[in-house]
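quick one, two chains, predict together pls
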Amino acid sequence: MSAQDIILSSGTSELTPAAQVRRKLSKVAKLFDATKCSGCKACQVSCSEWNDLRAPVGSFQGSYQNPMDLSSECWTLMKYNEIEQDNKLRWNFTHSACMHCADPACLTACSTKGAIVQRANGVVDFESDKCTGCGYCVSACPFNVPRLDPIDQKAYKCSMCSDRLQVGQEPACVKSCVTGALKYGTREDMLFIADLRIKELHKQGFTKAGLYSPEGVGGTGMMMILHDVSQPENYGLPADPKTSVPVKLWQDVVKPLGTAGILATVAVACLHRITVGRNIVEEDEPAAFDHTHSDKSDKE
Amino acid sequence: MHKQNMILRHKLFDRICHWFVVAAGLVTFLTGFAFFFPSFQWLGSIAGTPQMARFVHPIAGLLMCLPLMLMLVRYYHHNKWEKNDLTWMLAIKDVMFENEDKIPAIGHYNPGQKVLFRTFVVTSIGLTITGFMMWQPYFAPHFAAITIQWAILIHAICAVIMLIFVIVHFWMATWVEGSVAGMLYGYVSRAWCKKHHPNMLNDPELKTNKQEKH
């Protein structure tokens, strides 16, 4: 990937921005239509195929969902959210993977320069060789996506198959989707398609159907059409995801204030030393040396 | 050191504790700086690589905080707040500008040093608790994500406060000449005591190297 494709890099500030002249490149997006998904897991399997990931085989947990959670070796998971409505059980399928936020909390929280980047096409990517394993991204992500690997202690997540995108292909999950629930293209096109589909759903009687691309994170690079967008919790999604208060306070308040405090203390100390000068004791006793080599004991 | 009538200010155990804290603290702060200011990741190179810095930081941090707790036990009685301390605090300007005749007499530690010591104790307790909460991969997985985020914030605040007090500590120790030698070798001169900690000379347990000669 070209270094000029990185428009946002972790561990940098407005003072040292990433190369971003290509920021006007079209943003891409994945569109997941929960109303079309049949839960076949083709996306999950093709993700593991393309990215060479083999999560350990787990045990039966009373759900079709397997494994039960995302991990460093499972970047895309078909979630079988079991919802009871009007005494009937319903499956709310969620294609669970990185949301590729426009304002990614993981990138904001990252402790290492360039370990998390946002590419010109909007994809949020982890540069695993630079990752130190601090886990800040893991706790910061409002969607609980990145995971530390238990062996190499580095964080991993869906890269939207950025290697495939680079050569003009769609992500592996989209390629393998059999019902057309997953689509890929420019974000603008996906918004257009979503709009048509939602209008159609409204006509069919799904009056609460809508697009999930929360504004709190600046919109996402994976958008979802849900039967009932007013209750994203039913799909295991947060209602109002955003970069949390402590992460913002830490980056925007504690860092600049702390820097100012440290520099001010050093400045006052230096100024004090130069103006007040040395603080020396005038010895009132003659500097007589005790040649008896006193075996003083200070060991207590 | 071989001057007669030197007064024992820091016992051997406390001196070893102090310099152990300094060494561990240096590694902790340099590696911690690397995470706080990613642009200064090179400061963490004292541990080798960034990944190594991440691994070493919590261990070095514990090695810094635990001996400090020992020092809390050892120096507890010296750091109690006394009546005279308020007048000293109010005369802080005279202390800083060396108006010696106006500085109220104080004992083993002046109130400034007491505040400093207490800050080190409080921040190191804060750093240890929050540090455990964010320690990957051993302890962090046991805490909720939002709890870890607050821990990271409090950890950073404690670290900045501690660093500012470390700077003040270094500044004062190098300014008041004889202090560093006192912490290195244990002894200070009688004149030094008279000038900086006059009430120390009234201490019934005062030890000089003369008296120590058995």
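Residues 33 and 225 of chain A are 5 Å apart (CA to CA).
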